Structure formats: structure tokens, C-alpha cells
Amino acid sequence: MTEPYDVLIVGGGPAGLSAALNLGRALMRVLLVDADRPRNAATLVSHGFLTRDGVPPHELRRLAREELAGYPNVEVRTRQRVFGIEESDAGFAARLGRRSPEESVTARAVLLASGLRETLPDVPNLRGFYGVSLFSCVACDAWDLRDRRLALIGESADLASRARLIARWTDALTVFTHGSDAIGPDEEAELLAQGIAVERAPIMELQGEKGWITGIRLEGGAEHAIDGGFVQPRWDAELGYLQGLAPDADEAGHLIVDRSGRTSRPGVYAAGDIASPGPQQLMVAAGAGARVAAVIVHDAVGITTTH
Ligand SMILES: Cc1cc2nc3c(=O)[nH]c(=O)nc-3n(C[C@H](O)[C@H](O)[C@H](O)COP(=O)(O)OP(=O)(O)OC[C@H]3O[C@@H](n4cnc5c(N)ncnc54)[C@H](O)[C@@H]3O)c2cc1C
């Protein structure tokens, strides 16, 4: 076993990479382990990241890793996974490897930045359109779909408020509840008054080619011409590797952190989608990573953080 790292970072999305950069510049000895399965891999381009609007997801990560390569005190291991973390004399001990645990490392602090997993509504062939003409992040992708005939597909209780948001970008929005009761009668009346149609029948087929949706066929045979749209997934955090630590999480599986990114376990921090019920965006995750890095450095020298 090697000397303890100052910080072990689990996950190399924007949150983990941004934290690694800032910790590296603070002379911390950092190990970042990343399974390299970005949640946004389904999409061709990412939007809204200052100076990188329209960058492909993997390119953003590649650029960040290239910058980290300039810091000899930051070690990045991609396509490796953390399989378990527990407390140890050094602080924490983690098992990592490619397909199974092959090695143990120790660290004085741990930053959890492993993101979320999403489950799409059970609609036939939805994956075939996801990331090309159907998206989940309204702030990220609505601009490119503006003024088109859009669909919103979902089964969750926040579907009506999602529809009102999307209606900023189009006058031709239809909400598909796919047989669920996600929208109540009062909500339906409110949406109709705003010119938003609601279809309750189960979806039988998404029509189109090479990811570009052209229509939706419902049970009973009705067809809607559609040029793009949004789906409302379910999100949960894959926390299995944390069984030895079990920091507090909310019902949705987000880790509960204070405003500085500390979890309920001393020495364990979290940043990015895994900790944030707020906007799930690259820039927000990167900002959270930078912020928690500052907090980890302050905690290491015993300064009370005031931000
Ligand atoms: C289809 C789609 C399109 C999107 N488009 C945009 C967009 O255009 N603009 C925008 O701002 N946002 C977009 N988002 C949202 C954005 O991708 C997320 O908000 C952002 O990636 C969150 O960053 P993160 O660092 O918290 O987690 P992630 O980027 O999800 O990174 C987490 C990393 O941790 C790794 N990991 C997980 N478990 C382990 C483990 N046990 N050991 C090691 N590594 C592990 C994963 O493989 C992954 O590489 C999109 C999301 C989706 C799903």
C-alpha cells in the first residue's frame, strides 16, 4: 500500500475534475478515480458551459484531464472504479480496479463526485432518440428546439411544472403521460388554458430515423407529428460503494451536504449532481467542485470556512 493521498476523488465529471484542479494547485496529493461513464454521454454536444458552448461531452473531459497532466501531485485513473470505501487509521481506505477490486489505497479525505444514474420512462425505443432530438435538461437543450412542435414525455409528479417551463420556447407543446396519472384534472385544465395539450394514452411507437423524432403513435392509433422534445427521467445515486461509510442521503438519493459540501461523515465531502437537488448542469457541477476544494484545503489547515 502506498502513502496516503491527501484526497481521493471518486468520479471524473466536471465536479471531480474541477476539484482536482483546485486541490492540485493547493499542493494537495490527489488521486482521482473515474469509471468514465459520463451521464451526458448520450448527447452529441453540451451547451451552457462558459467558453465551451457546443463542446462534445468527452472533449470537455479530455481538455480538463490535459490541464491536470501539468500537476505531478494529481494522479488521474480513468476506466477504473471505486468498489468500496471504509474508515481506516489513515482516514479512509478504498478498493479500486477495472472490473473488480485489484488494489487498496488510503486517503485523509474523500470527495464523492460520482454523479447520478437516470432511468428513462418505459417507452419503446426511447434510448434511440435520447440525446439527439429528445433531451432531459431543459436549460441545456431547449434553445436548439425553440419554436418547434415539441413533446414532453414523463410519469412524474412535476410534469405539469416542467411543461410550463418548456412552453417558454414553443407554442406547440404536447405532454404525454404514457398512461400514468402524473397530471391531475386541475393541472390539465391549467395547461390547456395556456395552449399546452395533454395526451394520456400509452405511447406505442416513437417514429423517426437516426435519432431524429418525427412522430408519436399512441395506443388507439392516434398520431402526433413531433420535431423534438424532452423526457422526464427518474434519477438516483449509485451509492453501493459507500456501504462502509453511509453518509446521510435524502429520499431521492442525493447526499445531504452543508453549503460547503461536507457530508454527515467528517472527512467525506460531496459535489456535483450527487449532492445537488438544484440545476443539474456542467457549469454548476464544476463550480461545486471548485468550492468544495477550497473547503477541503481550509479544513486541512483548521480554518473555519465562512463561505
Ligand atoms: C443526455 C444529457 C445531456 C446533458 N446535456 C447537458 C448540457 O448540454 N449542458 C449542461 O450543462 N449539462 C448537461 N447535462 C447535465 C450534466 O451532464 C451533469 O449535470 C453533469 O455531468 C454532472 O457532473 P458530475 O461531475 O456531478 O457527474 P458526472 O458528469 O455524471 O460524472 C460522474 C463520473 O463518476 C463516475 N463514477 C460513478 N461511480 C463511480 C465509482 N464508483 N468509481 C469511479 N467513478 C465513478 C462516472 O462514470 C462518471 O464519469 C446533460 C445530462 C444528460 C443526461
Largest sheet: 7 strands, mixed
CATH topology of the largest domain: FAD/NAD(P)-binding domain
Q: Can you identify the CATH superfamily of the largest domain? A: FAD/NAD(P)-binding domain
Ligand inventory reads:
flavin-adenine dinucleotide
Shape: elongated
Helix content: 10-25%
Description of the molecule:
The chain has 307 residues and is an alpha/beta fold. It folds into two domains: 5-116 and 237-301, FAD/NAD(P)-binding domain (3-Layer(bba) Sandwich), CATH 3.50.50.60; 120-231, FAD/NAD(P)-binding domain (3-Layer(bba) Sandwich), CATH 3.50.50.60. 21% of the residues lie in helices and 28% in strands. It contains six helices and 17 strands. The chain has helices at residues 14-25, 57-68, 138-141, 159-166, 185-193, 282-301, and strands spanning 5-10, 30-34, 74-78, 81-88, 91-97, 103-112, 117-119, 134-135, 149-153, 172-176, 197-199, 203-209, 212-218, 223-225, 228-231, 234-236, 268-270. The strands form four sheets. Strands 1, 2, 3, 4, 5, 6 and 17 form a seven-stranded mixed β-sheet that branches. A five-stranded parallel β-sheet has the order 8-15-9-10-11, covered by helices on one side. Helix 1 (14-25) runs parallel beside helix 2 and helix 1 runs parallel beside helix 6. The protein is elongated, with a radius of gyration of 21 Å. The two termini are 36 Å apart. It binds flavin-adenine dinucleotide. Flavin-adenine dinucleotide is lined by residues 10-16, 33-40, 42-43, 46-49, 81-82, 113-115, 131, 135-137, 140, 238, 241, 272-274, 280-283, 285.
